[in-house]
Amino acid sequence: MSDSFIHVNPLTAPSHISKLYRLLDLRNDEGSNGIVDKIIISKEYLRKLCNDMVPSSFKSISEINYTELNSISFRLIGCYGNRNLIAKFLLNRNIIDQKLYDSLTTSVSIGDTNQPSLRPGIYLSIVNSNLGLIIHWPEIGCYENASNYSSPIKRNMVNLHRYLTKLTDHQMCFMSYKDLENFNLNLENSYNNSDDDDYYDDDDDDDYRFEVKNSQKEKDDVKIDDGFKVNLPNKIKIEINNQMEDGVPLNPIVVESTTNQSFVTRQLIRKTWHIKNITSYISAEQFPDDLKTKSQDRYLRIDRNRMDIKALKLLVKHGLNMGELLVPLHEALSVAKMQNEMRKIQRKSAIDEDISIIQQMTSIKLRSFESNFDKRNIQESSLSQTNLGDTDFERIRTKYPEIENQIKEKIKINSKNWKKMKKRYNLTYTFIEDILEKANEAGENDDEITEYVANIFRNMFIDDETDLKKFLEKYTQQIQSKFNWILYDSKIDKAKRWVFGDPYINEAKQKTKDKSDEEFIQELINFELFKGYDDIKELVINNFFKEYNRWKKNDFLNNLQEFLNNIRNNILLEDKLKREYEEEKKIIEKDMFDKICNEIEAKYKDGSMRLIVLDVKKSFACFMVEYDIEELQPNQLQITIYETALKEEDKLRIHENDSHIPCPILLSNMDQYGISFRIDFQNYNFKKISQFDNRKFLLVLYNKKIQRIEIFFDTARQLAQNFKSHLTIKPFKILNIDENFIIAINEPKGFLAIYNTKEVKLDVFSFDDNQSRLYGHYANIQLLQWYNNSIPNIKYFLFIKDTEELCFVENDGRARTFNLITLQFRPAACNFPRKLVNVLSSTDGSCIMVFAKEQRDYNNDIKEINRVYVYFSKNFGDPVSKVIDLPSSFKSLESLQISCINNRQTHLISLDLQNGCLNSLLVKITLEKAQFRFQKCMRKKSPIFQRTNLNDLINAYKLTFEKYPIDNCIDSKQNRPLCLKIVLDIDDDAVEDYGEKFEEYIIKMFENLKHSTKKPASILKKFSTSVITFQELDVEDANFQKKFSSEYQLGEWIIQLCCLIPIQIAVTRNNLFQPLKDGLSSNENYLIELEDDNHVDIISKNISFGWYEGIFKHFGNKKVKVISIMGEQSCGKSFMLNHIVGTTFGSAMRCTEGVWMSLVNTQECVYVALDFEGLNSLERTPQEDMFLALFNTVVSNLIFFKNQFAINRDISMFQKFQDGSKFFESDPNIFQARLCVIIKDVPKLDRDYITREFQSRVDQLFSEEVEDNFITRMCGNGLDIISWPVLGDIAWFKKLFIFKTKLDKLETKYENARAFLQNTKVIMAKLKICDWGSLDENLIQIRVATLKRLFPIAVSYGIEQKDSIIEHLMNHDSGKPIDDPIINLCDVLNNFEKSTKLLPDSNIWLYDNKYETCIQLSNILRNYFEEIVQPRRESSNDNEWFSSLDRFFKNIIARRTSRVQNWYMQNTANFPQDNSNVVNGKYEMEQEISKLSLLWTLCGLTCHQCGLKCVKNRDHKENHDCLTDHKCHFSCHFTEAHKDIIIPECSHKAGHEGKHACDKISHLCGKPCSLIDKRNCQKVCSKKIGHDDNEHLCQSKRHYCGKNCTLSSYTQKGDYQCLNKCIMSYEEEHDLHLCENTICPIQCPIPNCKERCQSDDHFHAFSDLQVNHFCGNEHQCRELCEDNGICQVVTKPKEQEEIYEGLVKETSITFTKYIQLSERLKCNKKIPPNEFKHTGKHTHKENGFHYCDAKCQFCEYYCTLPYGHTLHTHDTGHGIMTQTEFTGEDNVFEYAGYKLRVGDQGTFVLCNLFCKGLGRHRHIDYCQNVINCKDENQGRDIQHINEKVLPNPDKPKDFISHKLFWKRTGFKDPYSVQDQQEFEKCDYECPDDENLSYSNNEF
């Protein structure tokens, strides 16, 4: 048996292999029951790869930081081929160890013991930091040549090889010596070379011969051979050996089925406490009640591991209503935060002190350096000089270990000019020194020469020439001309100079590099080349010192300042502080978490069972609460159903060869076998189980308690779900009968028979055609008379399959058959063996097989043998036809069943309990009648097509290029040539020969490929091939990598990987459009009743495109073009789209269902390719097709519509577009697609004719629809018609390149990827809820709603998100951040001269709605001000200090306000500014900003405890407070009294008048002031000690009256009373008490305005005139629009998803009810300053559009025409018919696959598509004129109904035509003209029953 057909269940090894990452995984597709494989991206390992390379770069599939990943680049090489050789290669590279190598290379057997430990797929192995290997780990046998290239194993291989060639340009094919032996290198060309490439003879490719062959000429016979064997996992092995426990049978059962192979195990589950996991989705109001209900008779426990503090807060606050438990937590966190802020201030102060010491250390180092300058005049450093001790320096060295090295670096002279001068000096010195040596050698060294050379030295040093070579040539020539020296080089010297450079220059450079500045300066000081020429020395030294002083003054100070700033802005220190706070916060939260949990559990401790709260989450207004509820579970019987299936490969092999032994696989879900559920065995007896061909199981249980049969009929998964989720389950059928019965089932016929053994009575039931109902077929058949009125002992009772005959087998072996048609027994009877243990019918009913256990004597050794006795049905009554001995291993005869596999093979199936396997015997039944089969003729193939054993190792490229494109049509840059290196495990000697042979083979292979496919294949000309031995291969060799690998950026490469796999984004189900989340159905369990009604926003946020989400975000600013393909089923849509765009549709999916998306990234734009499900499918309704067509038209730029008009002349599919043309009101911003109709398979000679005929048909359609035709409404009046050649014609692929031109000319519909992402999701959300309103309006609503949600944090922090990742204020259209300008403090404060930059605005906390937090914020910002400007205690003028603080605060707030306003303006700039949403959003923003401004408006009145100004908020209610210690900190004025001691501080209150006086010595009188009871008194006398008068007075110039301010007034916002005290002198007589506040403090009367009155008169309210206290600003009107009509129509869900149970029992429809509501918008006018109202009426927009207020009576959608329109009928885009009840002539009828009854509701169909489903029809309506009807004067569109019709049967009713029906509604008939004409063809008089069968109505 080939390994290809062995099912293995591999382990997952990558987690055990270092640096091996699974990229693409081959998994069973659960949608195909595990029979078909699909390829998926391994999320787990891709996350690990990203985070291993760049930590935290992968947060989720939609949040991958590709930019950071692009910082990593490496080379890649692909590997595929012989898996053992690949494993050996990995072993040699130390990627795997010997143990894993042995596991990977061990041969595979049928059992589970020896299996490979890597799943087939694509892996990445990191060899080193520069190299990675892309490994295609193959399925066993995938490279073996097979006749069937459509088999799953080949399909998987081709797809994975395609991915390998897309992920790397270089591949290595590993071939063993055995592979090479089995490789046929002799490949002939499949055609004769011809210069004309346009014509080929392809007959050999497509010519297959078939014949009808008589396959049977034998007589009746049965043969039994070995069958399959499926080894079972250990867990199942144990289960099948259960027999009996507590009287409950537990033996396994092979399920009776003619078409499926399944078995059942049973286990007894003992009584136990059971934990049941429940998740509740509830609103805030429901939360407490839900918790209370679940906690009844249970004590509460909180899962300390799962729950966190956030979840606990939600539980305490919203579930338990025990908010007081959280107070200590909040207080502790507040204290911790304040302490952290203090630590920040303290550490900042410490850093400033450190910087001062570092400056001193730098100064010392600099002076030490300057000591080398001898006694030169060095400019003084500006660094501060302070006397510091060694302790301070040592502390700094310890704290900053590298500080001295850093200082040393900073005092290095890094001036470019200094280095040039050093180089010039060294060059000059070397050159002159050499000249002097030559002069000495020549004996010419005298004073004249010395003077000349000295002058040359001077001139060279100050020369401006920058080219050193020219510089040397110049002075060399001067010296030669002076001394007539011949200074020339030999040829060797010139060569050296040309290669190595001038030696003078090289030596000068080396000296400059080697000598430190200190050494160089010492050399300058000791310069003695020219004694007596000190002026030269001084010139040189002065030039250097001049440059040094310039560097020191400018560069050094700048470098030093930058260095100190780096220390000051120590990010590590900031992070440390933040970490300390976070750690402290965690400790507090952990401690308080435990305390709160303990308190809760102590309070809720009563109960016998546990209720464990696992998690609490909040999403908008909804809470998700997860519980574990403890329940007492009684003893139960667990039933586990195990199903099997065949892989496609086995099915194909059986089709080709009846004798092929298949290997079924156990179906699994997430590696879990079997589906289990439990029943109460005390109440139920398990009686029977059978499986039908639709994979549904018929389970028969006997309810002992009620004494009845309960029948359940459903799939295993649904059965398990029903039994698990319901305490009582509604059976499919209930039969009241006692326990004396046996059952027989005939699945092919749909019969169930029950034989009553006590009453000898037979009842037979039958399924209807849809298997939706089980009804009585033959009832109460009395059989006693056939047994001589004696009750027989029936042991076996069975159907003869696929017949209407039952077989009754008595205990003594007598068998009789009963015919259900004649209701009689056959005359003849059979005598079966007495020791029979089982009786079965063959699946076709041709024979009955009787199984017996008999004993036989073998030489006195008695052995038990198992036999089968065969009786053919047609000769029933004859003796046994054949007796067959069964194999000794086939023992469990009691559990045998006969089943048919793939309608080809009959198997006898059993469970081998001893060996733990499911096994079978192949039963071949031969009947006497001849059998004919239609089969392929077997003929000898030519060598061209003869495929040898392992050629597919290389042919993989050919197979890949046959299925997928070779040259890319739209982006030639993606046409990268491939390079193949064949790695042979052979000796070196033969490699060269094989190299030539393989190269020749591949050339011929590609020539054959081009001939057979006619594809453009220019890139194959650059395909390179080479051969290397396995021993010689060294991938880590640098030269090998350079020649045989390409370099990739990790981020871009992962994007390429993700784009390979398409993702499903939407499906149509239940007549609705269903968007998906990451390729899966989204979770609908969230509450819909949202405060802001932005349901489209919520639904769109629940849509996700998986891996593509992050890619769209990465390419946020890139343009997007959307290309889609749609058309008839199975017309090659995916194949064509792949070849147009370069995608891989069809690789990750079985077939196209719904909508699939793929991406192709080019330099110019991102192409989004959409592949749509074929239209007119039997599985789809017209409404579902319409949704697909509508979505396609709305979202695409270019639509390819492929059809087979050339064959069927059918254009009916365009009706799908026409049906959708009424929606979205033909919005030009939505409908911008270009439709390109591709007529498939048009021969060249017929193209013109076919095009003209198609044009004629379409023209007729458009002429009927006039302006409503879908091309005008949806496709911009444009339609391209392309007659496409037949596949195989060379023009088929050449023509693809015309689309490149079309795409280049195509205007992009989306400004960037962000716009595409949002618009597409919004469109999908609108389609889901049937919202046909303006897309632009939705986008505005969503944008403004998003900004509104961000207002609080934007105003409070100046950012958009603060949690785990800070997100700055952003322009959501361009992706650019909002400017955050740096402001210098000297620009804010006039008297502040120091250049100090303020902190950036982002992330400064400025607002909180809690008073205590606001005080804390004020303290933090005020402390920052005092730190950088001036401490308040040091200010001698508090008024000036307060004024500076006020300006500082106002500037901070103004900056925040400006940024938030700019942020809102930029994000709404593309929208109409008078739009209601934009206006309301701006108003709410201004309200938030107003709160911020008012919070930071300071009071400024005098503190109630001292003379400083109050720095609280202006509107505070408490006493005025300066928020200081209220003490005066200035020194005592009387300094002469404090000799030889420190002068103490003043003892008065801060801000006092007069002199400062301490209380240490009595300087003044000091006795109590006579006016001590007055306000503003300083309490003690300030006169001289012992003054003469008796009046003691303090220093205050005025003592205040102190009574309450007179201001008291009634305002529109309530009574106002000024709380301040009078500051008039107590000596002045006054009736009006005047406080310190001079302005009017009363609030503006306009609602929601918090500003104060604009008047400067405090007593403005006492004016004789009417006073309104206006603030003087404009105000936004907040009244509702008063215009007639409807301002806005919104489509919203009425409630959560629900299931509508129809009046017919089996009808259930899942739906969410969406309704339209009308809304009044707020007025957008401004109220002028000092006015209560604006002029004119309220309107949301001047001359704005208002909808008509008429509603469709069936769906309640509003008319979309303007209010007061003059048309005769209303018009709308209709919705679901939620307000509709059906009626009809028959009480029960069928529509769109649903069985309905009169009175059912239309919850599943659109108004404008309902009639289409009826075809020709008529409606029923209430009679409007009974008299006319009686007189038969109704008119041609009406026929009176004389019978009573439900509902309201007493009300007379009429049949009316479709036309009249819609006239009566008052709405325009929404159906196309073509539909209307069709409906008119059959009126109410038509006698055809077929046309009357759908006489249904809505009303």
Summed over residues and divided by their number, the pLDDT gives a mean of 81
The CATH level-2 architecture of the domain at 221-270 and 635-935 is identified as: 7 Propeller
The percentage helix is 25-40%
Amount of beta strand: 15-25%
At the first level of CATH, the class of the domain at 221-270 and 635-935 is Mainly Beta
Unreliable runs, pLDDT <50, ≥5 residues? 1-12, 108-116, 192-209, 938-948, 1084-1092, 1696-1700, 1702-1707, 1883-1899
Query: What's the count of strands?
Result: 74
What would you report as the Rg, rounded to the nearest angstrom? 47 Å
Shape: globular
**Class by SSE composition:** alpha+beta
Could you walk me through the main structural features you see in this protein, from its secondary elements to its overall organization?
- With 1899 residues, this protein is of the alpha+beta class.
- Among the domains are: 3-10 and 74-205 and 942-1058, no CATH class; 221-270 and 635-935, Methylamine Dehydrogenase, Chain H, CATH 2.130.10; 415-525, no CATH class; 1118-1311, P-loop containing nucleotide triphosphate hydrolases (Rossmann fold), CATH 3.40.50.300; 1345-1426 and 1456-1495, no CATH class; 1688-1898, no CATH class.
- Helix content is 32%, strand content 22%.
- It contains 47 helices and 74 strands.
- The strands form 21 sheets. Strands 1, 2, 5, 6, 7, 8, 45, 46 and 47 form a nine-stranded mixed β-sheet that branches. Strands 50-49-48-52-53-51-54-55-56 form a nine-stranded mixed β-sheet, with helices on both faces.
- Strand 42 and strand 43 form a beta hairpin.
- Helix 28 crosses helix 38 and helix 31 (1182-1195) packs antiparallel against helix 38 (1313-1328).
- The protein is globular.
- The model is unreliable at 1-12, 108-116, 192-209, 938-948, 1084-1092, 1696-1700, 1702-1707 and 1883-1899 (pLDDT under 50).
